[in-house]
Amino acid sequence: MPLPLLQNYINGQLCAGDSLRRGDVFDPALGQKTKDVYLSNTADVAQAVMAAKQAFVSWAKTTPLKRARIIFAFNQLVQEHIDELAALLTSEHGKVLSDAKGEMIRGIEVIEYACGIPSLMRGAFAEDVGTGIDSYSIPQPLGVCVGITPFNFPAMVPLWMLVMGIACGNTFILKPSERDPSVSLRLAELFTQAGLPQGVFNVVQGDKEAVDALLQHPDIKAISFVGATPTAQYIYREAALHGKRVQALGGAKNHCVVMPDADLDLVSDGLVGAAYGSTGQRCMAISVAVIVGDATADQVVDKIKQRLRILKILPGNLPEADMGPLITQQQLIRVKGLVTAGVAQGASLVVDGRELNVPHYEQGFFMGPCLFDHVTPEMSIYQEEIFGPVLCVMRVPSLAAAMNVINENPYGNGTAIYTENGAVAREFVSNIQVGMVGVNVPIPVPMAFFSFGGWKQSFFGDTHAHGSEAIKFYTRLKNVTSRWPEPHMAGVELTMPTLG
Ligand code: NAD
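Above: the input record for the complex with nicotinamide-adenine-dinucleotide. Below: its predicted structure, written as tokens.
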């Protein structure tokens, strides 16, 4: 019995071209391949760009209010299908159902924000910039825009991009992760059902070959990317080389500072959720707890140990599961290898999840939570983005030392501090070199009406995702200077025009 083939979605229809290449889609809890995904070639990309380019002509002229009505209808449909979408997501990603639903909700919030596009996408007007002369700026859509997305948020990250791009009057091509591409296809079908004209939203499945074709295509105006830092750097360079606007969000190493005055139960609950939720495969996961003072560290390590003992590591579709498997066998081997290296380099492995066995799911990509104490900056478990269920504890003597560790780190995506002292929190917020900061909030993911994005090696570009930054990214400003002459104003002038 052949496995289902996940195809492209172009011009409102599922289709596949003449590429013979296929990718494997797994159920990570079973450790079994469940689907094939079509891997597009240059001709498939050209077909999608042609469809999106043709659709742009009328979509750009569709009034923002009419666009908003279709987005409203899409919002309604996504909400009605949230359980189905979450289950589909879990079956390919592995995260637990409640987490998959949380991801859907964060994506839905972006759809809700985009419903306000008639009032969000407005320019500025100044009367009488000169005598009888007015000046105004109009934000206009760019054309065909592209989103290239990672495996770890197969619904939320695509929704950050495609909904905002389309709301602004662009047409869109999404290249989802080849590891969990089904949710994107389902979203495309629901958008069509909501009344989106054919060709406005297209999905191209694939890997590097499809991405390179997108980066090089002359009719694509902008690229939004989220993924690992080396890929982000490559996308940023190549897209810019080909004259495109680009925003590229990269990897992370997120630290949480724990001050001795913090409520250590709150801290430990927060750290367990932030480090092990989604099996540590969140770009905003806390992977390093920087704890001020040995007495505080001893208590926090002990409290985390107690909490890890009762975590249930099971297939994500079981309601009692707290933590699911990793995405692939390769990632499982890599994370276990990093843990082994951490031990060899001298860190204390306080909780070791490497040998976890989940009965009936022996082939699944499971490992248990790992907790390291006494981690130092030169260790590979500190230097690499592990992207697995591993929390490293670093002990430091002061807030200044904690901030120094974070500011020296090449990444700058998210960070947090736990303290009951407002002045300490303020000092941290003001001077930390990171793009998203939490105060007693371990995963400070901004809401849809603010913008998401890191600093340093976690972000390449100028404008962040969703919120007002997305309106800037997906539009360009035209500035108009206008005069309605009266007959007596005629007359030749060769001097430089000045207003006044
Ligand atoms: P990845 O970089 O391997 O893949 C991301 C996308 O790029 C996929 O669509 C993939 O097909 C494509 N791609 C991969 N290698 C490529 C290459 N050499 N050339 C062209 N295209 C390529 O990332 P991933 O493993 O899917 O996702 C995990 C990474 O994403 C982590 O590093 C995580 O921190 C990061 N991430 C960052 C954010 C953020 O907001 N900063 C959010 C989510 C994930």
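Notes for the reader.
The domain at 5-250+458-480 is CATH 3.40.605.10 (Aldehyde Dehydrogenase; Chain A, domain 1).
The pocket of nicotinamide-adenine-dinucleotide is lined by residues 148-153, 157, 175, 177-178, 207-208, 211, 226-228, 231, 234, 249-252, 283, 385, 387, 413, 454, 458 (CB under 6 Å).
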